[in-house]
Amino acid sequence: MEDDHRLSLKASLHRFIIDRLEEDDLLFEMDRHQMRPHVQGYVHTYLNEHNIDSLRADSARLVNELLDEIVGFGPLQALLEDDQIDDILINGASQVYVERKGKLERIPLRFINDQHVLRVIRRMIAPLGRRIDESSPMVDARLADGSRINAIIPPLAIDGPCLSVRKFRKEALTAEYLVKQGSLSMAMQEFLARAARSRCNMLISGSTGSGKTTLLNILSQNIGQSERVVTIEDAAELQLLHGHVVRLETRPPNAEGLGEVTARDLVKNALRMRPDRIILGESRGAEVLDMLQAMNTGHQGSMSTLHANSARDALMRLELMVALSGFSATELLVKQIISSALDIIVFVSRMPDGKRVVTQVVEVLDVADGMIRIAELFHYDLLQLQFHEVDKPSAKLLGRLKDQQQRDAS
């Protein structure tokens, strides 16, 4: 971990170089490659003027770090460029964590102070037209490369500015990769691919970071090229390898509290766009009701994700969100709407070693005795670490799969 002396030196160097770049009118006219020789010269000048011999051997590293500060995102730049890192978590100036291959670890990196963290956050969101300050101390945003960031600062964050970065994967994973990694069995993969092609309405549930969006991306690769797909997300993460996709993204309110566009607004608008399928990145509020109604009115093959602790819990959360949407109906009617709309629920878990696994696939049947009936089709035995096929799909689901086979053959 860097000591205070080095951090103080970097801060002084940074201020010196910024002043020189401004004096020479170079600060906003050069990219990283063009600026490098100028920064190298300024570093050598500074070290000579202040008789700092201890860092001459490390001057190349200093130049790279200063370039990161000037044209990049400071200490974060190297982490953002590391393809092995999926998440970056900053808790104040001195605590930085990263997630690699599902495992969270603290790394020997720190910022100069809280103002340094705040400066990097503001640099990240400035091109997006967003701001963060005491009057607006939280922000959600998406970087140009697709990475999703969340920042929260004092007075809400007691121990200093906090930043969370969910990095954007440049290449979409494939079903074959998940099978090879043991995230799902071949039988599971074939069934889910067939269900997606057959336009079954599917809900992917799991905890935060369990791989819901990754699986949704993979299942969407089975959508026919002739179908029109509309996606709705808070921060665009889906990578649909499909020719006819319309991507919609929610918008938070501005500084005056105006201009917000919610997921529910976009679901309603999507229904007027002649979609064959609607993919809702995450179901978390009143938009659930409109999504279920879309599934029940001809938009078969629609998909969404949901935070839940099990497939059964996902159904309970859906019921709760429908109730909170202001929809006036009996509990029985809400259950019937859900059971009629959904065909399959997939539950994804993150194991203690960081591995993501599809641990349950269930079919949604009907309502009986005041409960939504489900049938488990596949499950992952946590004790034996094996996948098991539990049951066969019902006549309702088999009929749909059979119909699709007949259409594919014709």
TrEMBL record:
Official protein name in the record: ATPase
SUPFAM superfamilies: P-loop containing nucleoside triphosphate hydrolases
One Pfam match: T2SSE
Biological source species: Pokkaliibacter plantistimulans
Family: Belongs to the GSP E family.
CDD domains: VirB11-like_ATPase
Domain Bacterial type II secretion system protein E span(s) in chain numbering: 72-346
Source superkingdom: Bacteria
